[in-house]
């Protein structure tokens, strides 16, 4: 039996992403993914022991890492904590809304599949987000521009919940309206007075 390589796993994740985009999450089968990857079903099952749920999560996490790399770059450039909060949140909302790989997981037919795949890994995803922003938040606390009485994990979870809410409940605000909302209601909760 051949050993599965990281290259094979990436090929399978690429194929899963393509199939989820083409057929939708609910209608994509492991057979579809194997065919798109030009691999046998057995190779896919050996490489991805968690099946479709693991593939759904792998696609989401890979795109999340891409976004977090971009967010880290933005945080390095921002001059103030309030603007980092506002622009980082706005960037996250726009990214998810416009990124087909993530957006097709938000359609109602994917909800049940997505919940099953991500529920068990929510702590992993939150920890990943915290790892990316922790250095910036810790620096802001040392500079007394971020409230000293809040922790990074709680702050990231709060922002994650805000971002999710803004994505799911689009109130037809333009970018300036969303900035105003964030400055009024979110920034005061996180930034030092």
From TrEMBL:
UniProt DNA-binding residue ranges: 29-48
Which InterPro entries does the annotation name?
Answer: Homeodomain-like_sf, HTH-type_TetR-like_transc_reg, HTH_TetR, Tet_transcr_reg_TetR-rel_C_sf
Please, which domain of life does this record's source organism belong to?
Bacteria
Domain HTH tetR-type residues, every copy: 6-66
Keyword annotations for this protein, in alphabetical order, are: DNA-binding, Transcription, Transcription regulation
Q: Which PROSITE patterns match?
A: HTH_TETR_2
What SUPFAM superfamilies does UniProt report for this protein, alphabetically? Homeodomain-like (SSF46689), Tetracyclin repressor-like, C-terminal domain (SSF48498)
For this entry, the protein name equals TetR/AcrR family transcriptional regulator
């Amino acid at each position: 039996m051949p050993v599965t390589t990281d290259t094979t796993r990436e090929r399978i994740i690429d194929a899963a992403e393509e199939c989820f985009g083409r057929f939708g999450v609910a209608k994509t089968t492991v057979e579809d993914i194997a065919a798109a990857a030009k691999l046998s079903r057995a190779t896919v099952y050996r490489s991805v022991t968690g099946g479709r749920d693991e593939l759904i999560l792998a696609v989401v996490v890979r795109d999340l890492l891409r976004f977090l790399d971009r967010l880290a770059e933005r945080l390095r450039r921002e001059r103030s904590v309030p603007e980092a909060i506002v622009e980082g949140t706005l960037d996250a909302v726009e990214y998810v809304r416009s990124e087909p790989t993530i957006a097709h997981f938000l359609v109602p037919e994917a909800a049940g599949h997505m919940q099953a795949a991500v529920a068990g890994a929510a702590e992993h995803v939150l920890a990943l987000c915290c790892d990316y922003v922790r250095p910036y938040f810790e620096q802001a606390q040392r500079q007394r521009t971020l409230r000293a009485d809040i922790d990074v994990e709680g702050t990231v979870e709060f922002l994650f919940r805000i971002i999710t809410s803004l994505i799911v409940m689009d109130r037809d605000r333009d970018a300036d309206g969303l900035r105003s909302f964030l400055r009024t209601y979110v920034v005061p909760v996180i930034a030092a007075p």
